[in-house]
């Protein structure tokens, strides 16, 4: 593209359109952040504002000093995310190796076995009854094991990557007397670090953002992960929104700034990992879209 | 049989490695299929799926004769179609615009902000929406009042919600899917543009006559693949945003939220299973149909 590039009105409009969409994406997040940093009085007086009259850290203070529930929820979410993604990564990566190995005669049958579950599932009820039957209710495992611990799509992503590794590597390792376990762990896994990182982030984000397992399988307040606590808080608030005015004052709800502060600390780890998320997610997405 | 065992023995470590995943899939997919029987039963938790009373198609009749059946099916299809069209249009438009941008810095900044919402859970998004739409403090009502209009109680105005939900879906997902389309545009042969430049084509002409036609297969394939999922409502989105707010059900209640309520709130697992089974079967047929069309039209794009 060697054409001369003048800065025309058209170019300006393109920049403006993109900047506008960026701004729209950014604004609700900035609003949440500033509300979390507002003093309660200025919210009650003026509503949500992008720039509050009075700044305050009370929202955050309330969470870390007074709210055992939220603090515990944070802990639960961290444990579930770390343990869950580690397990999921292991199960996924181990299964991908044999499916990428042409010496394994039944690898296509196995691929089909996994693929069918991507096309058809019995739906919510059979899944739920199975979880109940396995005792996966009201314990930490019920937040980790069902639904998220293995994803066939991710496994195919890893398998496709492994198929790109030259088979001579495996063959020469066989000749040197290594078995498949050794080859998988010593040769393939180190070579697959990029795709494994992508898949780990997929899993970690799914675990961190998950509240479905909690809403389906957990009634014990002490096991609520952060996302589900937020869900509970909000549905309580929404109930009040529908009551006639005046009824509101009889309830003590968490302050507006505290709610938004909870949202901010929930997003915290995502912001922290964002550079990696952006890089690996977009990469994984493009690969996945091209060849599912 | 002997050769089967020999193969297992020869590649024993390989089959051992695949075992955890295979067992997991067996437990949470294949082994759950027998529970589908309860769609034809009056299921009783104590008696289990083998001794509960069989009632034939009664659960299906109950669902299809209820007023909710038409509503949830129509809402599921309507919302999904609107989501698909809106997100695709915005994503393609963004990709086309990004393709015209030469400033790497601006591009990085814009993409970074646009992709971020994609990583948030719908719960988080629902809070952000709340700060926009709530009656007393919300930004939108503040703006309405500033312009002299009456504030609206959005959380009890059902007819506004399809548009609001579509807006939020675009907000959350368009940036991310524009990346796929941008990747497809980048793969287009640069010499096409060079010869167009020599012929004196304008930017608009190049966009219309080169980029869009060459992007069309990608758009069609991704749309067809999504079409297979059109019968599944986005539970995570709808339930996080709408919750149990019955006032909004007429426009927002989808099959998945109906099934959830039947199972966990009303406590009628058989009815829930019947609706779920109906959904899975139609969903499967749609996947087959979409894949068949994709394969006939584009050799490379099919799912399988």
Overall number of structural domains of chain B: 1
Order of H and E elements of chain A: HHHHHHHHHHHHHHH
* Fraction in helix of chain B: over 70%
The mean pLDDT of chain A is 86
CA-CA gap between termini of chain A: 32 Å
Specify Rg of chain A, calculated over alpha carbons: 25 Å
Sheet with the most strands, sense and barrel status of chain A = none
Strands of chain B, total number: 2
Rg of chain B, alpha carbons: 25 Å
Number of helices of chain B: 15
Reported CATH architecture of chain A: Orthogonal Bundle
In one word, what is the shape of chain A?
globular
Largest sheet of chain B: 2 strands, antiparallel
Structure, explained:
The complex is a heterodimer of chains A (292) and B (304). Chain A is mainly alpha-helical and 292 residues long. Chain A has a single domain, classed as MetI-like fold (Orthogonal Bundle), CATH 1.10.3720. Chain A has helices at 9-36, 40-46, 58-66, 68-99, 107-119, 124-133, 140-144, 152-163, 167-175, 180-191, 193-209, 212-217, 226-242, 256-272, 274-290. In chain A, 40% of the residues are buried. Chain B is mostly helical and 304 residues long. Chain B contains 15 helices and 2 strands. Chain B has a two-stranded antiparallel ribbon with strand order 1-2. In chain B, helix 5 (67-100) runs parallel beside helix 9 (161-186). The longest helix of chain B is centred in the first third of the chain and has 34 residues, at 67-100. Chain B is globular, with a radius of gyration of 25 Å. The chains are: A mainly alpha (292), B mainly alpha (304). The interface between A and B is large, with 101 and 106 residues.
